[in-house]
Amino acid sequence: xxxxxxxxxxxxxxxxxxxxxxxxxxxxxxxxxxxxxxxxxxxxxxxxxxxxxxxxxxxxxxxxxxxxxxxxxxxxxxxxxxxxxxxxxxxxxxxxxxxxxxxxxxxxxxxxxxxxxxxxxxxxxxxxxxxxxxxxxxxxxxxxxxxxxxxxxxxxxxxxxxxxxxxxxxxxxxxxxxxxxxxxxxxxxxxxxxxxxxxxxxxxxxxxxxxxxxxxxxxxxxxxxxxxxxxxxxxxxxxxxxxxxxxxxxxxxxxxxxxxxxxxxxxxxxxxxxxxxxxxxxxxxxxxxxxxxxxxxxxxxxxxxxxxxxxxxxxxxxxxxxxxxxx
Length: 327
Description:
Layout: E1 11-17, H1 21-32, E2 39-45, H2 50-58, E3 64-68, H3 74-82, E4 89-94, E5 97-99, H4 104-109, E6 117-125, H5 137-143, E7 146-147, E8 153-154, E9 163-166, E10 174-177, H6 178-184, H7 197-206, E11 212-223, H8 239-258, H9 260-282, H10 292-304, H11 306-309
Parallel strand pairs: 1-2, 1-4, 2-3, 6-11
Antiparallel strand pairs: 4-10, 5-11, 6-10, 7-8, 9-11
């Protein structure tokens, strides 16, 4: 049995990829330039692009493991990739994101010298040419990376100050000990959004004394938007309605599962919270490329669409698989 190395534990960089060949190749190039001494890259490629698979295999890099499989939901794809990973630490990055610098893995790794550190979230940036600190970083640190009363999230992962006890891990530029995943299970599958939170809820219920997640802003990742391909969850004329349906589904079937009493007591407020959060998201910089009139119309339609959205016709609770252990 391999003895964990506290100084340089083996990392498995987990990449979920779907119909983004150019972005994926750019990401793999940056990952291969990392200076960390012991890591592998596990790519779960879902597009069945034989030319892409051949090009990646032709690189001949023994650190690169390509797993071709069917298109899955985001948490199911993550779980599938993890089952092929051999590292003591799992480090997640999506195919449309890029690490900044050659020590990105190393910045995550230094946190695991503390055996109580179970997971790390790094800093997200929108423009690698502008890395200045945001305004009021101390206030942001107090607010960041925690759950609200509705068990949705306040992220603020662009901050520049470290935080040593955070509530959850995010989907990209986040790492976790494999031993924790083995202990509490993976990510619940079939959840259309906020899929990271079921793992956070399980950790909160099963954490041992002293265990914690941390935010380390020295591990920087460029969070890109508008890269062609992917699941296109923000595409189509009904992009805002799908966002509302997915959020309400999350409240009912994830929050309602792990915090049943809270959901039952506050469930009308969860509907209002869903509308409010989707309207905030409509005006988020992620949607800045959409015309002003389109975002105004979407904001109004979200309010009127609530009764129909509550039926969750696009999603089925039967598709949710609670992952509590690895087979």
